[in-house]
Amino acid sequence: MASDSNKDTLTYEIEFRKLGRTGWIKLKDKLEKSRFEWDTNTVEDARYEVRVIADDEKSNTPQTALTGSRISDAFVIDNTAPKIAKENIKIVKDVVRFTLTIQDAFTVIGNLSYTVDSNEDWISMLPDDLIYDTTTEDFTIQIEDMETGKHVIAVKISDDIKNVAYKTYEVNIK
């Protein structure tokens, strides 16, 4: 938060840029509050910086007004859910076995769960290495004692910041 030692009224300008780019994009101008919330759904997933410029022009003459700025540390904007990078389904008698590789571009995988035939009870799974700690995780789901007939298995995947995706699979147990 910016402050002025002699309590002048501050006005802010906020700019952003994707890392690797040189030009700044104006996000907000003539902001009088020291707080601003950015709807990051308006930009693509990537690493960004924000620059805040504060001036005390409202409380001073053009000759005595002061301006200061600060650039944030780089941060990630990630609005996209993880994706299924590889999938393999095997059905042997009444057992369905899925092997899935889940990937996210920026954020650690946070959860994988499944349900059978739209049951409201989701079953959470751990990655094959037993810990959610990377942007790529492998999973093995084995569902036993499936009844004869057609079924829908829904898989819900999310990253650590709760971006969620769903995928359904139809299976036929003979």
Commentary on this structure:
There is one protein chain. The protein is an all-beta fold and 174 residues long. It folds into 2 domains: 67 residues, Immunoglobulin-like, CATH 2.60.40; 91 residues, Sandwich (Immunoglobulin-like). Helix content is 0%, strand content 53%. Strands 1, 2, 3, 4 and 5 form a 5-stranded antiparallel sheet that branches. A 4-stranded antiparallel sheet has the order 9-8-11-12, with no helix packed on it. Strand 1 and strand 2 form a beta hairpin. It is rod-shaped. The protein starts with 10 loop residues before the first strand and ends with a strand. The relative contact order is 0.16.
List keywords for this structure.
Immunoglobulin-like; 174 residues; mainly beta; 12 strands; 53% strand; 2 domains; rod-shaped
User: What is the number of domains?
Assistant: 2
- Helix- and strand-based class? mainly beta
Number of helices: 0
CATH architecture of the largest domain: Sandwich
This entry's quaternary arrangement is: single chain
Separation of the first and last Cα atoms? 65 Å
CATH hierarchy, class of the largest domain: Mainly Beta
Q: Give unreliable regions as ranges.
A: none
Tell me the series of helices and strands, N- to C-terminal: EEEEEEEEEEEE
The main pleated sheet reads as:
5 strands, antiparallel
Which percent bin holds the helix content?
Answer: under 10%
CATH fourth-tier homologous superfamily of the largest domain: Immunoglobulins
- The Rg value, from CA coordinates, equals 25 Å
CATH topology of the largest domain: Immunoglobulin-like
